[in-house]
Every structure is written in C-alpha cells, then in structure tokens.
Amino acid sequence: MRKICILFIFVLICTNTYAQEAEVKEINKIDILTFIEKAEKEGMITKDPIVVVNENQVLDLNMMKDDQQFYGQLLTRDKGSKALVALYGEKAANGAILIKTIPKGYFGEGKTNAYNDILYFIGDKQVGEEEIKNINPDDIAAIQVVKNKQEMVKYTLQERDGIIIITLKE
Predict the structure, then answer these.
(1) Are 122 and 168 in contact (CB under 8 A)?
(2) For the chain, where are the alpha helices, taking DSSP H only?
(3) In a 3-state reduction of DSSP, which class is residue 108?
(4) Is the CB of residue 57 less than 8 Å from the CB of residue 9?
(5) 77 has which bridge partners?
(6) Within 10 A of 164 (CB to CB), how many other CB atoms are there?
(7) What's the pLDDT score for residue 110?
(8) How many angstroms separate the CA atoms of 114 and 63, rounded?
(9) DSSP per position, 33-53
(10) Residue 84, φ and ψ in degrees, nearest 5
(11) Inter-CA distances, 3 with 9, 12, 17, Å
(12) pLDDT at res. 170
C-alpha cells in the first residue's frame, strides 16, 4: 500500500510540474515558443493559445521582439476553460500560457515575498501594494478577503494565497 501511495504521489508531482513550471528565470520568445510546443504535445493546450503577461496584458508573439525578455515564471491553463474564455475571449478556449513576472533582484534572484501571492483591488480595479499603503484608513468603507479558490477564479487564473478587495467611501 505504501509503495502505491508513493508511486501515486510521484506521478502527481511529475504531471503537475510541467503544468506549473515554477522555476523563476529569464524568459524570451524562444522559451515561450518551446513551452507552447511542449504544452501542445502534452495536450494541455491546442494550436494558437492566448499568451498573457501578469493576467492583464495579452501578448502577441508575432509582435514580440527577439531580444525582449521577461523575468518570472511560465505557467499553463488548460484548454476549454470557461473562466479563461470569460476573461480573455474565444481565443482562450485553446488554452493559455501565462507569464508571471517578478521584478529581478527585488526579492533576490528567484525569491518571492510572502505577500507576492496576494492580489489587491480597490473596487473593481486591480492595484499594487504601494497604492494600498497610500489609502487613508478613514476613506475605507469595507474590506473583503477572498481565500476560496472558486471565488478567486472570478479575479485571476493564477494560484494566489488570497485577494483583498477594498471598498472606499463615496
């Protein structure tokens, strides 16, 4: 029984590692195209997936310069996801390649801050941590914390530890 459990865990780790390539590194156009080709072979995506940077910028690989680089992680989201189509349109039905960038050297090479996995919103607008710090506490009407993975899909497709939504007084 123990051997079966170990084998099962090994298979899960091997199949999940590809889908969520967690290595933080320099990413260029060739890396993205290679990743897409690999994901197509694995059946994760179909031809011509949508490529999204930091969940909000759709990247046209044909317009990307050969020397353009990102520092971060390459991730995939499976084809046929209704949440993908709702966020990015019909092209997302083929699947998505997500590029999650991390400021190089900001937290050290390949290191991330524990708060890096939290998204912040003021109303329905995604904002950075710096904007949150500048809010006058007296202007806050409500703060909502979203930790449920199913609820988080409404805001992001990336794995996050949570989402904080701040509603300001009118």
Answers:
(1) yes
(2) 2-19, 29-42, 82-88, 129-133, 149-152
(3) coil
(4) no
(5) 96
(6) 16
(7) 45
(8) 34
(9) HHHHHHHHHHTSS-SS-EEEE
(10) -60, -45
(11) 10, 14, 21
(12) 85
Q: Which of 103, 3, 83, 88 is nearest to 48 (CA)?
A: 88
Please choose, from the candidates 124, 60, 56, the residue with its C-alpha nearest in 3D space to the C-alpha of residue 88. Answer: 56
Structure confidence by residue, pLDDT tens digits, 19-66? 444 577 888 888 888 888 988 888 888 888 888 888 777 878 878 887
Rounded CA gap, 162 and 81, in Å? 21
In Å, the largest CA–CA distance within the chain is: 61
pLDDT at residue 2 in the model: 53
Interior CA angle at 162 toward 87 and 115, to 5°? 115
Out of 32-36, 74-78, 157-161, least confident range: 157-161
pLDDT tens-place string over residues 106-122? 444 444 444 457 888 89
Phi then psi for residue 141, to 5 deg, are -90, -40
Here the tokens at position 100 are: 């999650």
Say which residues have a Cβ less than 8 Å from residue 149's Cβ, sequence separation at least 6: none
